[in-house]
Write a structure and sequence with these properties.
9 strands; Alpha-Beta Plaits; 297 residues; 33% helix; alpha+beta; elongated; two-stranded antiparallel ribbon; 2 domains; single chain
Amino acid sequence: MDYNINKCIPQWNPHSMMHLLKQNLVSELNADSIKKIGVSRGARTDRGVHALCNVVSLKLQIDQKYCSSMTNNKLVDKWNIDWDLLIQELNSQLPSDIKVNAIKHVTQSFNVKHQADQRMYNYISPSFSTVDYVQNICNQYLGTHNFHNYTSKKEYNDPSSKRFIQDFRVQNLNFHNENYLKFTILGNSFMYHQIRKIIGTIYQIVQEKKDLSFIQDTFSQQQHSLYIAPQQGLYLREIKFTGYNMKKDIPQKLETDFKQQKLIDAFEDQLIQYICEQYESYNIFEEWYKEIQKHKQ
């Protein structure tokens, strides 16, 4: 699992492979292509969007220095690996805003993209209405709807345009005596720009005093050009593997323990601080909405 506050640093790049090479976790023969070690991510984010906790699956070769004992039995030796030492040395090589939190064994056929059955995102925005009213708008998105207007290159009749939103909540957030809104949205999967267009539409409804029925219109076959909220406020919060964890023949459950959760929470505090400071310094939301109004004239 890794964290990334996006300061124009890609989440997986040639430098990431070099860090694995330094720790003898991949061979030089396989280091020229991420396909050879089966790299796959649990979620992809839009350009400029943060990832608090993503999950990456890949095949590693473990150097003997990380093994507390060697029996030449792979089934036994894999449980004798000092993962804490390995994670510590990996993190010492990584930038301060990218960290490995845990490494876990999975089944041979494991596919992180397909096994992930829930993804949670957060969006931080300057406060623009009361929590109760914004929550009422959020509730309109719960359930299964056709989101073809919330992405690009998707037709209404495309089955993949239908997405299920399980939970969508908003709460107040205060930073440096300024009020913000923190959105939490949970679903099976999300399309390109979908969450940012949802936030943009909520903002549009409040600012332009639109009726809530506008949201139902966006689910219809009619084409709508929806506002895309700034990318700086969005971050991937968590990926869940509920179905996978219920299987009986898995090596380990993909869950975070108390110690790992504390690290995630601490990093989230840093991330929220970074986002709010960006809003304060550059008036991102105000400038974004001004630009939209300029193009509408």
